[in-house]
Amino acid sequence: MLESIPPLLLQFIMTTAFSFIVGLEFHNYLRVYQSHDKFGSIRTFVLIGLLGFLLYQLDTDGLFFAVGIASLSVMLSIYYWRQTAEKHFSLLESLLALLVFLIGPVTVHFPAWFLVLFVVLLVLMLGEKPLIHQFSNRLASNEIVILAKFLVISGVILPLLPDKQLAPELPVTYYKVWLAVIIVCGFSYLSYLAQTYFFKTRGLLLTGLLGGLYSSTAISVVISRRAQQMADDRSFVSSALIMATAMMYLRLLAIIFFLDSSSGKSLVLPFATLIALSCIIVIILLRFGNNAVVQHQTNAIQHPLELNMAILFALMFVFFAFITQYVISHFGNYGLNFLSIAVGFTDIDPFILSLLSGKFAVTKTAIVSAVIIASGSNNLLKAIYIAILARNRSVLAAFIWLLLLFVITLFYAFYFV
Question: 208: which residues sit within 8 A by CB, 6+ positions away?
Answer without folding.
Answer: 219, 223, 239, 240, 241, 242, 243, 244, 247
